[in-house]
Amino acid sequence: MVAFSSNILDSRSEYRTETELDDALKEPTTRYFAIAQGKLVMRVDGVAPEGLLAAPDLAAMQPQNADAVLIGWDRDNVAFIAMPVAIEADDLPEMYKAIDTRSVYRQALLTEEKLGAYAQGTSLVSWALTNRFCGTCGCAMTPKAGGYRRSCQACGHNVFPRTDPVAIMLIVDEANDRCLLGRSPHFAPGMYSCLAGFIEPGETIEDAVRRETREESGIRIDRVRYHASQPWPMPHTLMIGVYAEAKSLDIARDTVELEDCRWFSRTETEAMLSTALGQADASAPPPGAIAHRLMRDWLDWSR
Q1: pLDDT digits (tens, 9 = 90+) for 165-188
Q2: pLDDT in tens, 69-80
Q3: Is residue 207 exposed (0-12), middle (13-18) or buried (19+ Cβ within 10 Å)?
Q4: Which pLDDT does position 279 carry in this prediction?
Q5: What pLDDT is stored for residue 17 in this prediction?
């Protein structure tokens, strides 16, 4: 129901040996997501772009095996590896193009299953590239368990993949049957979305929802109910989608965080979701985004 959520690879994380990444690199059937400066390298000389590459495709891209991550295996026991490459995007051979993750998703350049696997792979590579050196003693880190863990060669300190939790909430005024949406300065023209914010250390999801909503809109929240989640690999976020009951109704928005914040009726929200598919003035996030899902499901529950 949301993008990046259909990864079917078996990571076998509890049973990995220290040779499996090297073994997979030697296997001719292994397939690769080549990642250049955070973008997916796709082969574009066929009928449709192809983002899952073979070893010969990577030969001219300066693959960085030391920072590669073995994502997992598919139903046919084919290994999938996320491979950072050192070549600059502008220097890629003519039949390849580096495409940013948001465009890969919005343009549906990968199947849902491949998109889910790529989301995991690019998040792991982003984490690996920012953990090349130990945060305790500064010495080099060595990948372990196919890249799912990194260990310091000097002091033995271990680090594990990072996920940043974000609460995203559709605030509902039940008495007046409307929802609260905001517009951030970096949004596409006319787009409104659910309010959202990072969950702070030591904070529950519910308290994060109440704090972020109060800070951004001035609205106080009563009940909070979990609905769905979404991996968001830009670079390694988990969006935690909830519905929240408004306890107050007068908006006092944070003018730095939001260009606008207002209540929308069901009719207006329905029109916005249609606009996400290309119709009218105000618009919603595109299908596949968890904000779109929260809005859509709120509307559908009354039917």
Answers
A1: 999 999 999 999 999 999 999 998
A2: 999 999 999 999
A3: middle
A4: 47
A5: 87
